[in-house]
Amino acid sequence: MDRSFPPVAPAHIHRYGPLSARNPDLEVLLTDGLGGFALSSAAGVPTRCYSGLVVSQSPPVQRFTHLVSPLEILQVGSQRHSLHALELAPGVFEGRGLEILGGATLHDLLPERVQMVGGVRISRRTVSPAHAGAAVYLYSVDSRESVTLTLGGYFVDRDMHHVHMQAPELKFEANGENVLVRGERTTRVRLHASGVEVTGLDPDPFPQRVYYRHDAARGEPDHEYVRGAALWEVRFPAGGGQVALVVQGLTDTTPDIPDPWLAYEQEATRRRELATLAQQTCGVTDDLVATLAVAADAYLVRRNSPAGTSVIAGYPWFADWGRDAMISLTGLTLLTGRFAEARDLLHTFLSTLQRGLIPNHFHEDGQGAGYNTVDGALWLAAALERYVTASNDLDFARGALPQLRRLLQWHLRGTDHGIRADPVDGLLLAGEAGVQLTWMDVKIEDWVVTPRHGKPIEIQGLWIAALGAETRLSEALGEPPELAEAWAQARGSFGQFWDGQAFADVLDTDGVLDLSVRPNAALALALPDTPATPEQVEAAVRQTENELLTPLGLHTLSPHDPRYRGNYGGPQVLRDAAYHQGTVWPWPLTAYLELLLSRGEVTQARAALDGLSGHVWEAGVGHVSEVFSGDALLPGGCPFQAWSVAELLRGQVLVSRAEKKEAAQKSG
Q1: Residue 156 CA to chain centroid, in angstroms?
Q2: Which H/E stretch holds residue 660?
Q3: What is the CA radius of gyration of the chain?
Q4: Backbone angles phi, psi at 659, to 5 degrees
Q5: Which residue, among 609, 584, 616, 583, has the nearest Cα to 594 in the 3D structure?
Q6: What is the C-alpha to C-alpha distance for residues 591 and 161, in angstroms, rounded to an integer?
Q7: What is the C-alpha separation between 471 and 483, in angstroms, rounded?
Q8: Per-chain mean pLDDT for the chain
């Protein structure tokens, strides 16, 4: 039975030709919903220490790498051709995988690599089935003559953030079509085939150096030694056939995958359904929405403790972060029609409240969380209101409202890190020495690069919105608001940020305005209750356009500022120093779009969105990068970032709806 092409038609297909598909900056991500993932370039080349198969031991954290790449050798007559490609040093490869590449295709972001050599066409599709800790490789061989495909892998056994400086000591236990690779953890490799001749090989593991070009660019350890092994020879008859390689990192709950082709079909169907549901929910039926809806799914993960839905902030190295989860919630869940996940995500973080704060992030080692965030809980309030508005889930609102009130009361009377309402003006103070609290949160040893202590402007917008949410949710439930007075006081004091020409970034504890030009005023003004006159909004829009706007997002600091750093790259200390000092971030762009749309500037909003929409196919394919360097606008940070994807999706929906409304008005 030919199972090369599943019957489900994808919502969107994107193709790269041979030259584009070789680009090592094109990376493909497949996730398992537990924090684990499979990562490689579009051509299948490992380019980072995170490449290969990564499996979570305690979802969604405690993640370990098991496989760097499959080993694939095709024999045609007397000629042997390595289908894989491992970079050994810059530009030096083991294997012919790039030379014989015919192209790469994404079927709802499920990758297919096609190669041609010696008159043989070899297609490889890859999938990571949900909750299976697996990478499944489906090979389809089309040949006039009988050919042999040798399959195996390049294996490791390590924390995903580290590398082996010498080849790991691994024990291979072969048993027919199953091989166990044992180190501190165990990898199971299984071959599925029918209608072909399979010969199990006696594993003879060998050391192999691998160079990681993206780690080199980040100033990180750039090579390691892995353990390669050929495990099976598969002889195809004339005409070809299919075979599947299933690699799993074993845990106490690893399920079996009895039919890898069925697993692919099920995942392909699920992705098509996600795209369709999102288009139906948001009312925008274009390819970008379909693609981003599928991409959004990658960040929603199941957390063991506390149990519930969470959000991986970015792949490949971030764990789940509270601020990122709450900012992303609208795009990842509400616009995609995934209300059950939205509700459970809110429940996860409501259940972790401590003294009115939610976790800034859960630790990768699974041991607790950090609570150093002033905005995480406030974004939760905004996300809660958005969820209730979108779902009309008043039962959940009734249960969550007392928690919201307690959260706000903690802020009013004072909680950790100097977070407290100023009794004089009702605005929110935050900050203590050595602690980073806003989204501009870099700390290099004892140096907090952007401390922003006092009253940051976007924190006031969030504080006012959170207090407003308490009033509106109370009224929706027929209850009297408890914090309306605090809401009115804070709204009445926001004008202190206006210096007559522009909004300040921070009002410090001495009443001095920090007039640094950053995107935070736009974030504040885009929130629902921030008081501003049309003239003030226009001034903020003009300043954003003149000093911050780029084709891919907003600068975190004006290039006119002497502290501006336009290069994001190199070792971590250099990257961190530039992170919020001029580096471009895509996620705040949607706040700027909202300001444009509030002024009826729909054409300008579409123009501002075009560059980032095109970027979706330039780095982490189908996703949006974390940041871009300020000068050259080169993608950096994580190539797959939750709030970048979520806010591009939200921006696309907002602009598309505005265009539809404008067209209807013109035709009417």
Answers
A1: 25
A2: helix 642-667
A3: 26
A4: -65, -40
A5: 609
A6: 33
A7: 7
A8: 97
Which residues touch 439 (CB under 8 Å, ≥6 apart)? 323, 375, 458
Structure tokens at 595: 């300001």
Residue 438 phi, psi dihedral angles, 5° rounding: -95, -175
For 162-196, letters b (16+ CB in 10 Å) and e give ebbeebbebebebeeeebbbebebbbbbbbbbeeb
- 393: three-class secondary structure by DSSP: coil
Q: What is the spatial distance between Cα 118 and Cα 440, in angstroms, rounded to a whole number?
A: 54
HSE of 151, CA atoms in CB hemisphere, 13 A: 26
Q: What is the pLDDT of residues 341-367, one digit of tens each?
A: 999 999 999 999 999 999 999 998 888
Q: How many residues does the chain have?
A: 668
- Dig out the tokens for 390 from the structure: 């979108």
| Residue pair 454/429 in contact by the 8 Å Cβ criterion | yes
Q: Which helix (H) or strand (E) holds 576?
A: helix 572-578
Instruction: Give the HSE-up count for residue 310: Cα atoms under 13 Å, Cβ half-sphere.
Output: 31
Tens digit of pLDDT for each residue in 296-335? 999 999 999 999 999 999 999 999 999 999 999 999 999 9
Residue with tokens 């190539």: 639
H/E stretch holding 267: helix 260-282
